[in-house]
Structures are given as structure tokens and as C-alpha cells.
Amino acid sequence: MGCLENMNYEVLAKNCSFKEARDIIKSNSTEKYEVPPGFKLLEKPLMGIPPVIVGVKDEKLIYGYTKPCHGTFVVVVEDPEGVDMVRKNGKPVW
């Protein structure tokens, strides 16, 4: 776990609404999980309007990352610990 800036990541979209982020996550993921607002990834709570969706594809996380004053981004992050945590604690959605 750590800061997003120190991870291997890719930005799929930026300055999007929570709904737009959710749709992008769903369309780019092979596994989808619902988590509560405030669920922590990389030690940071996720923000969003429920349902907050976190995706997994190729053992990478896909989720909305909201940075105050900069908006919401959809990021793809290599985080094996985070993938395990989402699979264990998230509710699978189809």
C-alpha cells in the first residue's frame, strides 16, 4: 500500500462525475465489486455516491479517485493487496 503517485498506474478518464466514473469502471472491468463510500484503497477513503464500484481486470484495480480541487479520475493501479481486499470485502456485482 502507498501513495498513488508512487504506484504503477494509468488514468482512463479525468474530471468525470461519479456516475460517469462508475460507467467507465464497469465497461473496463472483468470483475466488479460494490464497496461503501469511505472504503480505503492505498490508505485513502474512496468518495462517491452509492453504489461505489471498484473493478478488477488482469489483477489490477480500476476505481474512481477523487482529488480535492482536481475532480474525479478513473485509474488503473497495480495493487495485488488491494485486489485481494476488494475481493474479500466487496459485494460482487454483475
- Which stretches are poorly predicted, pLDDT < 50 over at least 5 residues? none
- Number of H/I helices: 2
Distance between the termini: 27 Å
Shape: globular
Order of helices and strands: EHEEEEEEHE
Helix content: 10-25%
What is the overall pLDDT average? 92
> What summary fits the major beta sheet?
6 strands, antiparallel
Strand order of the largest sheet: 1-7-6-5-2-8
User: What's the gyration radius in Å?
Assistant: 12 Å
Strand content: 35-45%
> What is the number of E strands?
8
- For the record, the count of structural domains works out to 1
- Provide the structure class: alpha+beta
Defining traits:
94 residues, alpha+beta, six-stranded antiparallel beta sheet, two-stranded antiparallel ribbon, 8 strands, globular, DUF1894 domain-containing protein, MTH0776-like
Short description:
The protein has 2 helices and 8 strands, in the order E-H-E-E-E-E-E-E-H-E.
Give structural notes.
The chain has helices at residues 18-27, 80-89; strands at residues 9-16, 31-35, 40-41, 44-45, 52-57, 60-67, 71-77, 91-93. It has 94 residues and is an alpha+beta fold. The protein has one domain. A hairpin with a 2-residue loop joins strand 3 and strand 4. The N and C termini lie far apart (27 Å).
